[in-house]
Amino acid sequence: MSIIKVERKVLEKNDELAARNREIFRQNGLFAVNMVSSPGSGKTSILERTLEYLNGTLRVTVIEGDVQTDLDAQRVAKFGVPVVQIITNGGCHLDANLIQNALGNVELKGVQLLVIENVGNLVCPANYDLGEDMKIVVASTTEGDDKPLKYPGMFRNASALIINKIDLIPYVNCNLEELKNNALRINPALKVFETSCTTKQGIAEWCKWLEEQAAGNGGKK
Amino acid sequence: MDEYGSVRFLRCIIVVLLERTLRMHELSVAQSIIEIIHQSVPEQEWNQVTAIRLKIGAVAGIVPDSLEFSFNAITAESALSNARLITEYVPFRVHCRTCDINSENEEGFAVCDKCGSTDIQILSGTELQIKEIELEEIDKVL
């Protein structure tokens, strides 16, 4: 028997491509966020409210990832921002290669904020670096307060947590403090926002923070 | 269709189902493992590969059984059909900067077990790594 020592990360190819994407983002001076959540927690709605709030003050481009259809891209395009749709055809996550291909279809010059909306899935996207500056995880109150414990990887790798559908708290079985505590036990550095896309509660606070992050991390123009 | 043909047909169906419908990330991880084997072992020796030793962290987000299932399904009719995955579990361990002790937990909490501090450093448990590839002489494999 012979043994070949390998000692390589299994996803090193993805990590290499992600590093290349990161370099492209840096060269263009843009700030990139990767929005992740389970399906239906409100990523696209938060993005709509964010674009509405920013109202052109930041030059934004969006990459939408979905298993099927370009419905989300259509929703986002109504706000007058460039949007590229990636349809994964059953794939459960975006990877750095898909983003690299998508970058060939967008004009990055002048862009300050690139929002990548990942496929709705709290498991797989955690493993795949896309080259983003930060991951934003969205958890909605209708999903209950134990999501961070069940899917810790996504919360560990994120910089901010948006607790969405906060207006539904009186009607759903979700202890808000418990949800925050569970998330902070996984990742004590998480910045937490509470939002409702219906009442617009918390949207301004989230958007101001996002603007600050973009300004401090390359998105200055 | 003879029995052999039926088994092949079923395998094809499984792989197509995995690729087209389920597409769990263990399948793409299995494909990445195969790519690394292809880069590390000369092509004429692929059929001598018997084992791939992996380190999988407790919070790596990988189900070893699903990974093995995916790997076996896509290598079944290939030169790597003799290869099996052998996984080493790596516990989630943290170092507390406050009380200077190391502790383990299954849940992936970034909290010190002893003093409850969140000023910690993750020591292990997020690995997804190929350690080594084992090859046997072909006459011993067959």
What does this structure look like?
The complex is a heterodimer of chains A (221) and B (142). Chain A has 8 helices and 8 strands. Chain A is α/β, with parallel strands linked by helices and 221 residues long. A 7-stranded parallel β-sheet of chain A has the order 4-3-5-2-6-7-8, with helices on both faces. The model of chain A has no long low-confidence stretch (mean pLDDT 94). Chain B has 4 helices and 6 strands. Chain B starts with a helix and ends with a helix. Strand 1 of chain A pairs antiparallel with strand 6 of chain B.
Q: What share of the residues of chain A does DSSP label as strand, in percent?
A: 15-25%
Tally of separate helices of chain A: 8
- What shape does the CA trace of chain B take? elongated
The gyration radius over C-alpha positions of chain A equals 17 Å
Helix and strand pattern of chain A: EHEHEHEHEEHHEHEH
What is the number of beta strands of chain A?
8
Mean pLDDT of chain A: 94
What is the number of helices of chain B? Answer: 4
Rg measurement of chain B, Å: 19 Å
How far apart, in Å, are the first and last alpha carbons of chain A? 60 Å
Proportion of β residues of chain B?
A: 25-35%
Give the overall shape of chain A, derived from the CA principal axes. Answer: globular
Biggest pleated sheet of chain B: 3 strands, mixed
| DSSP helix fraction of chain B | 25-40%
The biggest chain-chain interface is: A-B, 35 and 37 residues
Q: What is the helix content of chain A?
A: 25-40%
Describe the protein's topology.
The complex is a heterodimer of chains A (221) and B (142).
Chain A: E1 2-9, H1 12-27, E2 31-37, H2 43-54, E3 60-66, H3 71-77, E4 83-87, H4 96-103, E5 113-117, E6 134-140, H5 147-150, H6 152-156, E7 160-164, H7 176-186, E8 191-194, H8 203-216
Parallel strand pairs in A: 2-5, 2-6, 3-4, 3-5, 6-7, 7-8
Helix pairs in contact in A: 1-4, 2-8
Chain B: H1 3-22, H2 25-40, E1 49-57, H3 64-75, E2 84-90, E3 93-96, E4 102-104, E5 120-124, E6 128-135, H4 138-141
Parallel strand pairs in B: 1-2
Antiparallel strand pairs in B: 1-6, 3-4, 3-5
